[in-house]
Amino acid sequence: MRFLLMSMTLVLIVTFGEALSDRWSRDEMVEMAGYGEQKLSSVLLTASLLSSSSSPIHGATVGIKCHSGHRRRSKWIKAVTNELGQFVIDLPSHLHAIPDLDKACIIKTLSVPKPYRCSSKIHRGIQLLSSSNGSRVYTAGNITLQESTM
User: Fold this and answer.
1) Predicted local distance difference test score (pLDDT) of residue 139
2) Considering the entire predicted model, what is its pTM?
3) Which stretch is the leader sequence (predicted)?
4) Nearest to 138 by CA among 147, 148, 123, 128
5) 3-state DSSP: the chain helix, strand, coil percent, rounded to 5?
6) Across all residues in the chain, what is the average pLDDT?
7) Run of H or E including 87
8) Residue 66 belongs to a domain with what CATH number?
9) Cα 139 from chain centroid (whole Å)
């Protein structure tokens, strides 16, 4: 109800041509509109990338792509693994509302530094780790890449 009242007030002010900046601050207008710079939800994906000998793979580029129900999947959202082989990807807000996100996304190793000699792999299946106050954290656990012999 408060949102509806504030929205109607905002529409009336715009309609009558009053200067918004004289009336409300930018933060107040963003809150009334329900979007803008304030993030309403957060969805993170975390995992570790390991070689078949259980060594962490540092400096690999990993991506996640989610099927949003439309004809094509989202673009790759990328991250680089740290020295422990771990990465965190913050999903863009347009992907937050995908139903069954855990089944709609795939993770792929996009590039692996040469010293590791591991082949790329597509990993399916992320699991919800926690959810509270508009934040969800998913994990793919440990993703193990097979070392290739050259």
Assistant:
1) 94
2) 0.69
3) 1-19
4) 128
5) 25, 40, 40
6) 79
7) strand 86-90
8) 2.60.130.10
9) 12
